[in-house]
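BACKBONE GEOMETRY TOKENS
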Amino acid sequence: MDAETQQKVEETVLEILKNSNMEETTEYKIRKSASEKLQMNLSDPTWKKFVRQVVELYLQEQQAKAEQQEEKEEEEEEEEEEHNKTRGGKEYDDEGGLIICRLSDKRRVTISDFRGKTLISIREYYKRDGKELPTAKGISLTAEQWSSFKKNLPAVEKAIKKMESW
């Protein structure tokens, strides 16, 4: 098995692999096709082993390329997700609500649209599968309820100061 013949066999096998349906082809079919193309017998054990090595190397390279492409796509998705969460310098949650402020690691104030109504929510969140999801612990106020609450904030602050001084 001289180097020149080896090179011709390798090039032919790779060409056949590149043009094959990888779901249907087999090593035997590749070897048979290369034998016909090169007009030589590749069923000798030495040639069988060589063709198998070429096929395996090709498959490993294709697998590595597919994994790299998958990683690249995942990174692009994550970047896009992060970009969508911070539009125009504003931060949005996974449901599309505008995050006004984070009160703690698990609590935040958000404004969102629910069934055509603007809601101001003060709610606890938990993490699952990399996403922050709302819990039932919290309150959502309509714009009218928020206005009423806001009007009464001075009274709430006054009551807090009074209780703290006891």
